[in-house]
Structures are given as structure tokens and as C-alpha cells.
Amino acid sequence: MPFEVTILGNNSAIPAHGRHPTSQVVQIHEHFFLVDCGEGTQMQLAKYKIRKNKFDHIFISHLHGDHYFGLIGLITSYHLMHRERPLHVHGPKGLLDIINLQLAVSNTTLYYELIFHEVKSELVNVLLETDEYSISSFPVKHRIPTHGFLFKEKIGLRKINPDKISELNFPFQIIAELKKGNDCEWEGKLLKSNEWTLPPVAPHSYAFCADTVYHEELKQYIAGCDVIYHEATFMEESSERAIITFHSTARQAAAMGKAIGVKKLLIGHFSAKYDNLLPLLAEAKEIFSETELAIEGQVFSI
Fold it and tell me: Cα(194)–Cα(178) distance, rounded to whole angstroms?
């Protein structure tokens, strides 16, 4: 089943060079999640033919405008569409006050229920958990309270051994137990799960690291991830600027990817000073070859 990330926006601070502020869509199986909601997110959803009614949960990393200025537009669009399902917004302290003020001054009472979940940016928090996946937050180091998000599949059921399919002459309930890893008795015979089934597909994970200066502590929160997104606002020539603004360089992002041993590193949140992004990619690849640019519209399989 699909586990994918679609890039909607990859620029920092302001729209520039045809690029938009940060926003991504994470799909885990049949479930869709919006991560950050910079200016223009609705237009990007329309451009890449992603229906906005797919989302029941929106995750906001911090309160710099390029990560949430598109949120009130999406919230009010749902209102105008007469949305009926509740909408869950997960974000830092202060975001609900902003939303309520924007609704109040426009005299808007939403048709649907908006449920706000405050994320304590300095902690690791489990935000959403089902039988299929878990979504948690973890602290990063930026100028204001900021957190990243970790999306993890859970271990699924075991698979029936294809060599045994022709011998499956017992009830579905027995098959279901074998797939759970349980041994069963049937007509006086002991059916061993490890003989009738194969191990499940290994679960995958994706980390959205949000805006952050390079810091070693990040490794403990995202160790073992298959794919991570790490900001790369500047090239190494602007490393002093990166430190002052609590951002990272492409080289630093690559160093993090290499240290963690991820299968793939995505870099984004590019400064408007860069029209051509290929030099940032080249700088990162010098350190970690499995690096790709988080180009808008691209879909990355986890």
C-alpha cells in the first residue's frame, strides 16, 4: 500500500522563482495528511490534483508565516464548502488564538468542528496512533519553538506462504490467526504460523525535520528513518547567515542524512537568493550521495 510524500512548497520565507513556501502531503495507505500550510497551498493542491477534502489532520511545525499563512484560507474554504467532518489541527501554542481572531473579525462561525491539539514543541509527543501507523512530533532547534514530525508504519500481518495456498482448506478465522503469528489447532493438527506464513513487509518511516539549525541531538529522534526531509536554506558559503537565522546549509543537511544512514534525504526550504538549485544539490551530494531536491510536484515513495 502507498506511503508517499508530495511536495507542494519548497521555498523559505517568501514565494520566489516560481517556488512556494513550505507545504507537503503525506499519504500513508489510504490516509492523507497536510504538513505545514504556507501561502498558496490551496493553489498547489489544485495544481497537483489533490482534493482538499482528503484531509482530516493538519500538522503545523511552528509560527513563522511561511509555514502557516495558508491555513486560515483552507479552514474558511472548508466552511464555504459546508464541510461536515471535524478537522484536527496540530500545532504550537498560540496558533489557536490566531485562528480564532481571524474567524472572529470576519464574523465567521464554522459549519464544522475544528479541533485543535496543542503540540509542546520541546517534547516528543504521540499525536495520532492507529493500528496502521503512528504520527509523533519531536523538538528541533530554531529561533522560536519548533518541532518536526515522524510518520511511522506499524508492522502489518504476516503473509500466507504462496507455496501453501493450495492446502488452505480451513476456515478464514484460522487463516486470520496464522497471519497474526498465532499457532492454531485444526482437526487434530497443529498449524504453525511460521510454516504457513511469511514475515510481514518491514514498516517504513518518514521524518519532516522542519526549520532547524544543524544539531546532533536530532539524530536520536529520527534514527532508523527510511527517508527524511531536512531544510537546506543556504549553501556553505552562507554558513554564518545560517547560524544567525537558525537554519542549515545543504552540506549540513547531508551530514545529518549520512550520520543517520537514511535511504534517501530530501532537502528544501531554499532561500530566495538561489534561482538555480543545482549547486545546493551538488554541495549536498559531496557528503551524501542519496540526496534529492524536494521539487514541487514531485512524489517520493517511502
Answer: 8
Which grid coordinates belong to 195?
A: 510454516
pLDDT digit string, tens, across residues 95-149: 999 999 999 999 999 999 999 999 999 999 999 999 999 999 999 999 999 999 9
Here the cell at position 201 is 513487509
- Residues 35-94 have pLDDT tens digits of 999 999 999 999 999 999 999 999 999 999 999 999 999 999 999 999 999 999 999 999
Domain ranges within the chain, ordered by starting residue: 3-156+201-301, 159-198
- Which pTM value belongs to this model? 0.90
* Other C-beta atoms lying within 10 Å of the C-beta of residue 245: 18
Question: What is the pLDDT at residue 271?
Answer: 98
State pLDDT tens for residues 248-298. Answer: 999 999 999 999 999 999 999 999 999 999 999 999 999 999 999 999 999
Active site residue 97: no
| CB contact at 8 A, 239 and 246 | no
Q: Which fold has domain 3-156+201-301?
A: Metallo-beta-lactamase; Chain A (3.60.15)
Pairing, β 3-9 against β 23-28: antiparallel
156 vs 284: CA distance, rounded Å = 35
Active-site entry in 66, 97, 131, 163: 66
**pLDDT score for 180:** 86
Q: How far is CA 224 from the centre of its chain?
A: 15
Q: Position of cell 538549485? A: 277
DSSP string, 99-133: HHHHHHHTT---SS-EEEEE--TTS-EEEEE-SSE
Please, which residues have CB within 8 angstroms of residue 132's CB and are 6 or more apart in sequence? 28, 29, 31, 153, 154, 156
> Quick check: 65 and 98 in contact, CB under 8 A?
no
Altogether, the residues listed in the chain come to a count of 302
